[in-house]
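Folds abound. A case:
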Amino acid sequence: MLKRMELSGGKVVPNGDNGNIHVYVNPDETERKYLVEKLELDEHTLASALDPDELARLEFEPNHTALIFKRPRNYSSEDMFVFKIASVGLFLFENRLIVVLSEDIPLFQGKQFARITSLQEVALKIIYSSIAHFNEHLRVINAVSDALEDQINASMENKYLLSLFSLEKSLVYYLNGIGSNGKLIERVKNSAVKLKLTTESIEFVDDMIIENQQCYEQASTYSNILASMMDARVSIVSNNLNWLIKTLTIITIAIMLPTLVVSVFSMNVEIPLEDHPYAFWVILAMALSTTYVVRLVWRWKKW
């Protein structure tokens, strides 16, 4: 699917007729053929823009510059607490910017797209928006992790632990993606002359480096905390299960002893108290006393 946009008045606005910014969302075979044959995009680089496992990188072609970077994928309930990442390709020509991505997301929103003077700035702002997107997802992951911890403290099921394992796996993906973006941004700064970046754009790249490093450190902190606490949470679940089994065992004993007393006095043989006028009440009292004895032992042992 093709969306045509235009850089006009310092903003990126829709332009269905032509426009100098073309956004291809999961391009079909015809669109890929056009990009490769007409615009001379490298076929491997184009495939990298749609490959979630591809590393971020910067490549200079004869008539354009290709930038592949990582961003978080849109999360859905079907992902089962696995936050995935995707690749995005930016192909910067002299008077045109081609954006290739695998799913439709809002690209040109936020105050950073308010004052833009060149296509180079548009490309940098798109990369910067992915850093903000990573930060938002990290806050969500932290909130979900706290909620799962509360569930684990009172639960004996494995599903909450499995969800935490999924979050830990997601943070590993995020660390790789954020770290890969950091190397790309460093390469952009070192290639500022080739990319024809202005002084303001170079300063913005420096800010991006700082923001991306902070994002990486935050993801690393969350990942380390989640990994270090995982064994403790497994122990909590095991302890909850052991406590339940112990409680059920004590309840079983408390029920079994009165049943044993009543069963003994119910046998069809000569037994004590069979001619006693209050035999029923005596036997009932003996049965209830066994339950009371179990209760006393329970308190004495501090079970």
Q: What stands out?
A: DSSP finds six helices and seven strands in the chain.
